[in-house]
Amino acid sequence: MSGGGAGPPGGGEVAKAKGCRKALLRSYGLLLMAGSSCTFSVVSLLVSLLVTDFPVYQIVSIRFFMQWGCAALTLLVQRKSPCFDRRDLSPMVARSVFGIISMVTFYMALKHFPMASASVIRFTSPAMVVVLARVLYKEPFGWTESISTIVSTVGVVFVAQPTFIFGAHQDEASDDTVGGGSGTPAQTGIAIGLAFAAAVSAAFAFLGIRRVNRVPPFVTTFVFSFTGFLTITPVAFIYGQMKWPSSFGQTI
Predict the structure, then answer these.
(1) d(CA 42, CA 38)
(2) Which of 15, 84, 138, 217 is deepest in the core (most CB within 10 A)?
(3) Is the separation of the CB atoms in 124 and 153 below 8 Å?
(4) Phi/psi of residue 2, each to 5°?
(5) Which of 145, 115, 143 is nearest to 129 (CA)?
(6) What is the Cα–Cα distance from 192 to 176, expressed in whole angstroms?
(7) What is the average pLDDT score of the chain?
(8) Per-residue pLDDT tens for 67-125?
């Protein structure tokens, strides 16, 4: 006869299966994050190549239109509605506004700041999310989060190389440089500020996404891209600098 502390038959297997399921879900999330980072880097490279020939607002408008089309097609195939609960309106608006600001400022930064350096600064937004989540939502902030935030900050300092620490440095861009990334010291300084603004705005956008976890991801993407397209397209036309691609490569 078994003792009173014995668990039900198969209890160990059930717990092991649950543990494996959690590990798989965690790995799946990490894979999605890695895929998102790779896609972001590829898009940043393409924007860096185009930003010297096309206005930033035009690039952003086309990006939003393509993103909205993909999200709308996905929702149509899945037979899901793009509507969401009114309780999620405020975080959805915050996600859209800060997401639009982040995209515009980052693309502007790519015009006069190297893509690799601008991307490094932009990728500090997760560390900012940790700090903001602690301040706004009282989420845990332990040694791991502290060390990660410090390392990210030190890395950004070495990338941005502010003149009050490293002194004046010359632009390494040459006549053979393709795409954006070059400019005067003043333009480079403004571009660094824009990259930081993109990182901060992205952090607030991520916090908005976390607040709408009840909303399906493609609905969030649909609303964000549609709002961005309606907001940025009139600005692109007002500036009156819309251009047609001059080659098949630019069209692709």
Answers:
(1) 6
(2) 84
(3) yes
(4) -80, 155
(5) 145
(6) 23
(7) 81
(8) 999 999 999 999 999 999 888 999 999 999 999 999 999 999 998 888 888 888 888 88
Q: Does residue 88 contact residue 208 with C-beta atoms inside 8 Å?
A: no
- Give the C-alpha separation, 60 to 103, whole Å: 7
pLDDT at 1: 47
DSSP category for residue 124: T
Give the model's confidence band at 164: pLDDT under 50 very low, under 70 low, under 90 confident, else very high: very low
Helix, strand and coil percent figures for the chain, each rounded to 5? 75, 0, 25
- Judging by beta carbons within 10 Å of its beta carbon (0-12, 13-18, 19+), is residue 194 exposed, middle or buried? buried
Please report which confidence band the pLDDT of residue 16 belongs to, taking 50, 70 and 90 as the band edges.
Answer: low
Q: In b/e form, how buried is each residue of 36-62, taking b as 16+ CB within 10 angstroms?
A: eeeeeeeebeebbbbbeebbbbbbbbb
Structure tokens at 187: 């333009």
**Residue 59 CB contacts under 8 Å (≥ 6 apart), including other chains:** 47, 50, 51, 107
Q: What is the pTM assigned to this prediction?
A: 0.78
Please answer whether residues 60 and 229 qualify as being in contact, where contact means their C-beta atoms are separated by less than 8 angstroms: no
Q: Which amino acid is at 160?
A: A
Sequence letter at residue 180: G
**Cβ atoms within 10 A of the Cβ of 251, count?**
8
138: left (phi over 0), alpha (psi -120 to 50) or beta: left
